[in-house]
User: Which sequence fits this backbone?
């Protein structure tokens, strides 16, 4: 639609996301039932937005937990309340 293109890429368009575009168009009196879905799909399909948008900073592999078999094996508390390491110094 011309309204979607002008709002997203036009002279005053700043390549906003779907929700912002929907809000702007509703503010000017336009409405249809699938408006939000249409705007989100339109903004996801914009090549410039995909090319210059934020990069997802997610790991490509799931994180693995490091579980110590005996969590307090390397530390002890003395009678006066001081923590001391049980690691042997070389």
Assistant:
């Amino acid at each position: 639609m011309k309204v979607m293109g002008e709002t997203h890429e036009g002279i005053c368009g700043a390549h906003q996301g779907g929700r912002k575009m929907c809000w702007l168009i509703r503010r000017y009196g336009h409405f249809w039932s699938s408006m939000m879905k249409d705007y989100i799909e339109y903004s996801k399909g914009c090549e410039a937005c995909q090319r210059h948008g934020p990069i997802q900073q997610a790991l490509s592999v799931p994180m693995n937990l490091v579980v110590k078999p005996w969590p307090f094996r390397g530390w002890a508390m003395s009678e006066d309340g001081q923590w001391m390491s049980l690691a042997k110094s070389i």
Q: What stands out?
A: Residues 2-52 form one domain.
